[in-house]
TrEMBL record:
The keyword Transcription applies. Keywords: DNA-binding, Transcription, Transcription regulation. Residues 35-54 bind DNA. This is AcrR family transcriptional regulator. The lineage of its organism: Bacteria, Bacillati, Actinomycetota, Actinomycetes, Kitasatosporales. It comes from the Bacteria. It comes from Streptomyces spectabilis.
Amino acid sequence: MAEQGIRARQREHTRGRLVAEGRRLFAARGYAAVGLAEIVRSAEVTKGALYHHFTDKADLFRAVLEEVQQEVGRRVADAADAHGDPWARLTAGCRAFLAATAAPEVQRVMLVDGPAVLGWSAWRAMDEAASVRHLDDALADLVDSGVLSPQPVAPLSHLLSGAMNEAALWLASSTDPEDLARTQAALERLLDGLRTG
């Protein structure tokens, strides 16, 4: 039993190294510019070890993307959960999303290469699992409390998610350090327009 536990930890360690090195390389140069041989060399493992954990480069990238999306989702949830008021939770979560996605590594992996490598449908499903659920919950609380007028939450959630993803992509090409604060302010004005009179 102890030997099985050691092997399981070694497998997890190897997988973690592959994901960490894949993430570092994909973020620095982009998916297309990174080869499996380079990832294996950088992670100091064999190609067989890589294929034990992942079917191909796209499968490794999916694991990297999932990790990035989960980290962004945790940052959003932590920022939102720091507030008791439902409106403050929504706005804090939205601000946190824009701040988290302003990091170049997040932009490259999550917003640029993610849809291109995995395809829009697969990327969207992962995005929904990682963050749209939090947005759905926040909007449902606001509808239930009367802060937002009664309406289906799913369309509004998808509209806001799309707007924030688009804003994050725009920020990726911006060279003005003030644009993050300006974008967060514009998003808050947009959100304020949704509140009931």
